[in-house]
Specification:
CATH architecture: Roll
Number of strands: 3
Order of helices and strands: HEHEE
Number of domains: 1
Helix content: 25-40%
Shape: globular
Number of helices: 2
Largest sheet: 3 strands, antiparallel
Length: 82
């Protein structure tokens, strides 16, 4: 069992949507990926919100990942948090 597996964004629910919060979320994402997903290489991580998203309390997280295998496959992932 891995009791601390995953990423808890709940601690940011009442934080302002600003550059400091974006940086902290990005850092948490990177720590989690490096800890639990040894088979990937993180190429990019972007955390932010448009003005419209910020007004609604939403956030976008975009990742570009590469498999650390013979295929070296690269894939993009985007998550919108509401």
């Amino acid at each position: 069992m891995l009791p601390d597996y995953g990423l808890s964004l709940r601690k940011y629910v009442f934080e302002p949507l600003d550059e400091v919060t974006y940086f902290l979320i990005k850092t948490d994402i990177l720590k989690t990926l490096y800890k639990y997903f040894k088979a990937i290489r993180v190429l990019t991580v972007a955390v932010g919100a448009t003005v419209e998203q910020a007004d609604r309390g939403e956030l976008s997280i975009s990742l570009t990942l590469q498999l650390v295998s013979d295929s070296k496959e690269v894939f993009d992932m985007e998550v919108n948090v509401k």
